[in-house]
Structures are given as structure tokens and as C-alpha cells.
Amino acid sequence: MNQQFIRGLEIDWNKIERDSYLKNIEALKGVEQLEFETPITFFVGENGSGKSTLLEAIAVVYGFNPEGGTKNYSFSTYDSHSNLCEAIRLSKGFRQAKHGYFLRAESFYNVATKEEDYADAGHPSSRFHAQSHGESFLALAQQQMQPNGIYILDEPEAALSPHRQLTLMLEIHRYAKAGAQFIIVTHSPILLAIPEAKIWTFDEGAVHTCAYEDTSSYQVTEMFVNHREQLLDRLFKE
Ligand SMILES: Nc1ncnc2c1ncn2[C@@H]1O[C@H](COP(=O)(O)OP(=O)(O)OP(=O)(O)O)[C@@H](O)[C@H]1O
After folding, report:
1. Ligand 1: which residues within 6 Å by Cβ?
2. Which ligand 1 atom is the nearest neighbour of the CA of 202?
3. Quick check: is 107 in a domain?
4. Which is more confident, 68 or 212?
5. Binning pLDDT at 50, 70 and 90, where does residue 119 land?
6. The CATH number of the domain where 233 resides is what?
7. What is the Å distance from ligand 1's center to 150 Cα?
8. Quick check: 110 and 67 in contact, CB under 8 A?
9. 122 within a domain of the structure (yes/no)
């Protein structure tokens, strides 16, 4: 039985205007429904294939601020989220998430600033701006994760060294085992390797599941690491 907080989604494309750019995103426009059966779901695919658009819409429909944070964050520094949230219906599970966080690499700076504004004597600031980008990003992820929470993460690897990606991978795996749910957009072959995760790729013009070894994140990295000299020879000759 599907025990996830967000068990799946449906998109009613009739609710999106005919000339919306959303209808031109090749992989996305074919999505009518998706099911999230496992505690960890990954969205992968080429730049511009629609992963963040779908992730953001899921987060907004679930009640998160489009720029990220917990459900209590309500600031807005720019209004750029798409109308996809108006067409998505989430199928929610019978369990209630005790905690949640929408983490986006691209607006982390704004969220870190807001975290200082929201701090008070009872909830002192973690002063993320006083740490390096990677240190603060991992610290935030570690502070926020709890068993029975839901975490929507957009490219959480962006600021992280390979070492810290391994740390994040272990944390995600640990909390997923303890009952948390993660939906993650990533290009990281390290994070993608988390056992038992389900991977949806936005490549080849349709959103479909794929094996770890079939992701381009894995294939390009594997080719580069194992055949670096031949690859560079070929690329620089072209
Ligand atoms: N406001 C907008 N107007 C027109 N097109 C847009 C707008 N916002 C996003 N797009 C387009 O929608 C497409 C999907 O963007 P999205 O950010 O979802 O891609 P992505 O798969 O997350 O890419 P990346 O891996 O680079 O983060 C892109 O081609 C982008 O240019």
C-alpha cells in the first residue's frame, strides 16, 4: 500500500491557457498523472526539460512558499512561479506530515536572509550567511530533516562538494527509512545512487521511469571517469 504523504498527482491541462509555454515543454505536456510510491522520488533530465517547473508546482499545491522554506515562510522577492499549480491535483496519503521543507538551490540566499528575520529569542537564527554556501546548505538540510517529514528539494547538490553530497545522501536515506518522503530534482550521480529510490526521467520527450545506469548523469560521469583521455581527445578534435 502507498504510504507516502503525497501519493501522486494529476494534471488537468484544460486549466492551462492554450498559448502557455507550459504546453510547449515536451516531456511535461504529456503528463496526466504520476504516482509516488516510494519514500524517495527523483526527477532527472536535461536542462530545461521541465523538472523544476513540476517540482515547484507540487510544492506550491502542497502549501509551500514558491521560493522555498517551511510552510510558515510567506515572503516573496519575485513572482515567477508558473500557473501549473492551478492545474495540479495532489493525491494525499492518510498520514499527516509533521514537518516539511521546500529547498531550492536558486533561492537559498533569500531563504537564508528570511531565516534571520524570522528568528527570535526562542528560535535563534542559524546565521547561514556566516557560513560558506555548501556548509550552510548542508546545515540547513540537516536541521530541517525529521522522520515523518516531507522534503521537496531542487538541486540540493548545487553547493555541495562530492564529500558533502555523500553526507546528504546518507541523511536522505536515513530519514526516508524513518518515514520521511523526498521528491528531489537532481543532476548528481551521487544522490541518484540512493538505494530503492524511484527515478523519473524527463528525457526523450516523455516523463518515464528509468534505471540509475540509464540516467545521463550516471552515463556521462561514468564515461568521463573511465574513458577521460579518449573522450577529451574526441571532444577537442571536433
Ligand atoms: N516564465 C517563463 N516563460 C517562458 N518559458 C519559461 C518560463 N519559465 C520557464 N520556462 C521554460 O520552461 C522550461 C522548463 O524549465 P525548468 O526550469 O522546469 O527546467 P529544468 O528541467 O528544471 O532545468 P534545469 O535542469 O536547468 O534546472 C525551460 O525551457 C524554460 O526556459
Report:
1. 21, 25, 45, 47-53
2. 21
3. yes
4. 212
5. confident
6. 3.40.50
7. 24
8. yes
9. yes
